[in-house]
Amino acid sequence: MSSRVGVILFPGSNCEQDAIEAVRMLGGEAELLWHGDETVAGVDAVIVPGGFAHGDYLRPGAIARFSPVMAAVQRFADEGGPVVGICNGFQVLTEAGLLPGALQKNRGLKFLCATTTLRVETTSSVLTSGLAVGDHLRIPINHFEGNYTCDPETLSVLKADDRVVFRYVDNPNGSIDDIAGICSSGRNVVGLMPHPERAISPLLGSDDGVGVLQSLLRAATAA
After folding, report:
1. Annotated catalytic, 197?
2. If you average pLDDT over residues 182-193, what whole number do you get?
3. Which of 61, 92, 126, 130 is the most buried (most CB within 10 A)?
4. pLDDT given for residue 175 in this prediction
């Protein structure tokens, strides 16, 4: 039985179809979840996709966090459901308090659209269980406010608890400690700035996102 993955659509999201296509290509079922819904409709996993939720007119994700669906996502996560925020979705998860820290403007104040190399730092998350620590993945980024930051105490906790999921090999945006992705204390909520759904075929330049999303589908099946 294939996993059902819900992909949230906010006003301004623009990567929801990429996520849906990637999930379906890997054998999962995918469906849109409307930002005004008060439930996640019994899905097995949730993806909060990239884009510009509500135009990012305040801070990226700061308005999206108040959407009715986010209360349902919080309940789903509290029950151990797999939740992944990609790019703008990572920003939404930090603003909603599902993940610590915040995302600020890139170092140099430039929009970045390029393929980066990530290093897998832990396999203890719903997004990396099928990978190996030290694996290098070629995954594209596409953001202006992807510079992850947090206070020293939070950084110490993330490192001590093995909650840094990915680091940049060559930091493109100034993120503290080269962080490209983190997870929650329960390991079931993950946020990352790079786009694994855009790296699922050599025709796209890399298929290194396949193992990442396959890990999510396995976690969804087990949830």
Report:
1. yes
2. 98
3. 92
4. 98
Q: Is the pLDDT at 215 greater than 90, yes or no?
A: yes
> Alpha-carbon distance 192 to 196, whole Å?
9
Q: Domain count for the chain, please give it.
A: 1
Q: CA separation (Å) from 103 to 66, 143, 176, 181?
A: 18, 11, 10, 11
The mean pLDDT value for 122-131 works out to 98
Domain containing 85 — which CATH number?
3.40.50.880
Identify the domain containing residue 194 by its residue range: 4-222
Sequence-ordered list of residues with C-beta below 8 angstroms from that of 44, at least 6 positions apart, any chain: 3, 4, 5, 81, 82, 220, 221, 223
pLDDT per residue over 30-56, tens digit each? 999 999 999 998 999 999 999 888 877
Active-site pick, 87, 95, 121, 145: 87
